[in-house]
From TrEMBL:
It comes from the Bacteria. InterPro entries: 6-hairpin_glycosidase_sf, 6hp_glycosidase-like_sf, Gal_mutarotase_sf_dom, GH65_N, Glyco_hydro_65_C, Glyco_hydro_65_M, Glyco_hydro_65_N, Malt_Pase/Glycosyl_Hdrlase. Keywords: Glycosyltransferase, Hydrolase, Transferase. It comes from Enterococcus larvae. The keyword Ligase does not apply. Residues 290-672 form the Glycoside hydrolase family 65 central catalytic domain. Belongs to the glycosyl hydrolase 65 family. This is Glycoside hydrolase family 65 protein.
Length: 727
């Protein structure tokens, strides 16, 4: 059973939630878990990866393709629609093992009981394809009108983005193309169907859609079905997307649903063989962890795509479909350990967007690479200066995420270096990786101030991971990560010594000679806040301990509106020690070997009651550090929180008045980290793989695979110890 996620009953109030929870995808698109008959009010979406558009001055966001699965069944002109019909039973489920979404609804109407079932999957073997089989049966013989086609009237947060719709139909294939308003991207969706029955077919178009209507008399008790192969292409993929989409959907239909499904299922089985993590003794944790892994697998850029993974995955346009530090710091470890090729693709996205990062640094008067806080294609920053709307005045609030969250560049450098070290693939450094690291280091050296009287470099006026405290000085995490970036820049230059020509050419190209001296100075003199000798505490930033020491509950009780933003200039948390998310604790987790257990424990205990976990990135880090200090029972609730965030739907839905719901791939990645790096205590150092188990009470055993360079290892862990062997 722990492969199935299911819900029963109509539960219309959860329509948006279920759209996220039952998401399918294949890296190229995500298709929300909505019903086939739904219109844009229910937020269906075929959300495309890496293709964006802007409407007027509204936020740029990814494009939702026309909905190729749209289908509505009328029996004696009565719509059989989950929203309005009389329902006898309804269930929706996700089979994670096979990555198939299923729905079954029994309606009661003029033709007695009418049962509708559908299975759909986002093909894992050709990520332009979406397949569906839709079947129905009636208790009494009746006239049926089936409408199925491509609905271009799609859900948009800041749209509409698609214009100039044009239509095509030939035999069993129909297609819709549209052009995006800002950049003129062409989007084409084609759909070919095969019917198990005959009927009178009429093609009709609406302002933004093309549909077929098939009418016939359905016999009592007989089962009817049709299959649909939907293909999506854009002008970013091919020159004439319409042609390609038609071709792909036609040939997929010819291959047949059954064969397409069996190939898809085979591919998924293979993925699970490598990425599943088994937990014995805790069904609930098993299901939640698998679900987290499922979410990561449906987002992984496949087939050579060099897009990255947005903060809300492919569940819609929330967070502008933008890529944050979430990818490198929270998702990358899963891919690095189970699918290094995908990890490399994610890294390539950052290498390809280096020019955008350079442009951003220059815009603020700095040198080097200042990566986008909310990165879209070409690395431009989608984060606006007014990123939150005040709930009281409805005015956009000035926030400094874009200008001051400088730790983003260190996350990029960290990700590249981790990938290089794990895979030992020098081509990553030679094909742009080293250049990115050097440019990130240069950015920090250009951002830093030398405080002569203190004889040290400082990073002033920044925002650390805790976004509730803006424009602080010497955020410990940021300073430590900047120091790390400088350190790896030095190491990268060292690593290139045996390719002297390349090294020289790179230094020349970047005009880096003087920077190298500056890096050496910074390496020695960049201030990194240390644990206090008496308390063992690391101060999150200069002056943090002087802020009001209110509890999270006290701060929450000061809210006038539940959607109110806690940070910014006047937020309820801003002048208190309440923090949004793991900050010092994240630093201690990443650099755990540099701090004593006592320091880690004291900081965990100090910061934990003061953390609001207003970001889904937070609980997993508390779980990880708790495991590291030998307290798996402290870690367990945080693990469950991170692993079930998209199952329960219990997450923040608003920042000010802005809807931020969707799936949470960073938390999903965090669940994998908490399980494998936390509870199992997996570590790989200089090629040596070890485990230090800290299993929660209920867990008897964990087993999983990891890949290190070319080798795959099986790892088994019990409370007593672990076994690791090469496969
Ligand atoms: C968090 C950031 C995170 C972003 C996207 C924000 O709420 O504070 O750290 O990158 O969400 O997940």
């Amino acid at each position: 059973m722990s492969w199935i996620i299911s819900e029963a009953g109509r539960q219309l109030e959860k329509t948006i939630d279920f759209g996220n929870k039952f998401l399918i995808g294949n890296g190229y698109f995500g298709y929300r878990g909505t019903m086939e008959e739904y219109g844009k009010e229910e937020l269906p979406a075929c959300n495309l990866s890496g293709i964006y558009d802007q409407q007027g001055t509204a936020w740029r966001e990814p494009i939702n393709a026309p909905n190729g699965l749209y289908t509505q069944l009328f029996v004696e002109d009565e719509p059989h629609d989950l929203r309005t019909g009389e329902i006898v039973a309804h269930s929706q489920q996700l089979d994670m093992l096979r990555a198939i979404h299923q729905r079954k609804t029994v309606f009661s109407g003029r033709a007695g009981k009418v049962t509708i079932e559908s299975d759909r999957f986002a093909s894992s073997t050709d990520n332009h394809l979406l397949h569906m089989i839709y079947s129905f049966s009636l208790e009494k013989t009746a006239r049926v009108r089936l409408v199925t086609g491509i609905d271009g009237d799609v859900w948009d947060i800041n749209g509409p983005h698609l214009f100039d719709y044009s239509y095509y139909s030939e035999s069993r294939t129909i297609a819709v193309t549209a052009v995006s308003g800002e950049l003129g991207h062409k989007i084409a969706v084609a759909d070919t169907i095969s019917l198990s029955f005959e009927g009178e077919v009429r093609i009709f178009e609406t302002e933004k859609g093309l549909f077929r209507q098939i009418e016939f008399i359905a016999q009592a008790g007989k089962s009817y079905h049709f299959t649909k192969a939907v293909a999506v292409y854009t002008s970013q993929d091919v020159e004439i997307p319409l042609e390609q989409a038609i071709k792909a959907s036609f040939s997929a239909n010819k291959t047949g649903y059954k064969l397409a499904k069996s190939k898809h299922v085979e591919e998924w089985k293979e993925r699970w063989t490598m990425s599943d993590v088994l937990i014995e003794g805790d069904e609930k944790a098993q299901l939640a962890l698998r679900y987290s892994i499922y979410q990561l697998l449906i987002l992984a850029p496949q087939h050579g795509q060099t897009t990255s993974i947005p903060a809300r995955g492919l569940s819609g346009q929330t967070y502008k479909g933008a890529v944050f530090w979430d990818t490198e710091m929270f998702m990358l470890p899963f891919f690095l350990h189970t699918d290094p090729e995908t990890a490399k693709n994610l890294i390539k996205y950052r290498i390809q967007t280096l020019d955008g990062a350079r442009a951003k640094a220059a815009e603020y008067g700095f040198r080097g690479a200042f990566y986008a806080w909310e990165s879209q294609e070409n690395g431009q920053d989608a984060c606006s200066d007014y990123n939150v709307t005040d709930v009281f005045t409805n005015r956009p609030m000035r926030t400094y995420f874009r200008d001051k969250q400088i730790h983003i560049s260190s996350a990029v450098a960290y990700g590249i270096w981790q990938t290089y070290v794990m895979t030992d693939d020098r081509s990553l450094l030679l094909n742009g990786g080293a250049e990115v690291i050097l440019e990130c280091a240069r950015f920090y050296s250009s951002y830093a101030y030398y405080q002569a009287e203190k004889k040290r470099f400082e990073l002033v006026d920044v925002i650390g991971p805790d976004e509730y405290h803006e424009r602080v000085y010497n955020n410990a995490y940021t300073n430590k990560m900047a120091a790390y970036t400088i350190d790896i820049a030095v190491k990268a230059l060292e690593a290139l010594r045996d390719v002297p020509d390349y090294r020289e050419a790179l230094i020349r190209k970047l005009d880096y000679q003087e920077d190298m001296e500056q890096l050496a100075a910074m390496n020695a003199e960049l201030y990194v806040p240390e644990p206090n000798d008496e308390t063992g505490l690391i101060e999150q930033f200069d002056g943090y301990f002087k802020l009001e020491d209110a509890t999270v509950e006290a701060v929450r009780s000061r809210l006038i509106d539940p959607k109110e933003y806690w940070g910014g200039a006047y937020g309820v948390a801003a002048d208190t020690q309440v923090l949004k998310q793991a900050d010092v604790v994240l630093l201690l987790t990443l650099f755990k070997e540099e701090y004593t257990e006592e320091v880690k424990r004291k900081n965990w205990q100090y910061y934990e009651p003061r953390t609001e976990h207003g970001s889904s990135l937070s609980p997993c880090i508390y779980a990880l550090l708790a495991c590291d200090i030998g307290d798996p029972e402290w870690a367990y609730p945080y693990f469950m929180k991170t692993a079930s965030v998209d199952l329960t739907g219990e997450s923040k839905q608003f920042a000010g008045t802005i809807y931020i719901g969707g799936t949470h791939p960073a938390a999903n990645g965090g669940a994998w980290m908490a399980a494998v790096l936390g509870f199992a205590g997996l570590e790989i150092r200089e090629g040596k793989i070890t485990v230090t188990p800290q299993l929660p009470e209920k867990w008897q055993k964990m087993s999983f695979k990891i890949q290190v360079k070319e080798d795959v290892y099986q790892v088994e862990v019990t409370k007593e110890g672990g076994n690791i062997w090469k496969q």
